[in-house]
Amino acid sequence: MSAETLQVTLRFVLAAVFVGMGVAHFLPGPARTMRAMIPPALRRRSMPSPAVLVAATGVCEIAGGIELLVPGLRTAAGLALVVFLVAVFPANAHAASRPERFGRVAVPFWPRFAGQLVLILLVALAIA
């Protein structure tokens, strides 16, 4: 298998992952959990509501996933997804610190951090 074939395959896999996760933001159960994951620092009057933040991040994931497959948008989408992965990490860290509340969603901090880094690396490889 050529490097180009591997990269195209990676793009499709990442697109499926991001679109799938984005769609989950609009399903009642997962969306409720994601709203609860919003850290207290982002729950101020000056900030959008947790429901708006969850919907917006869902749209970002869906758009980014689709755009990874569009040649003219691929690089911008990849860079946006990297920024997105960094931006949503505080919510993941918040959940990690509360396993009694979030159960299996509360992946411990260091494995979650490593997972985010792997995803960032894979996105970078997909747009290289």
TrEMBL record:
The keyword Magnesium does not apply. Its main location: membrane. The keyword Membrane applies. The chain crosses the membrane at residues 12-31, 51-70, 76-97, 109-127. It comes from the Bacteria. One of its GO terms (cellular component) is membrane. Keywords: Membrane, Transmembrane, Transmembrane helix. InterPro entries: DoxX. Coiled coil: none annotated. It is found in: Membrane. It is a multi-pass membrane protein. PANTHER family: DOXX FAMILY MEMBRANE PROTEIN, MEMBRANE PROTEIN-RELATED. This is Putative membrane protein.
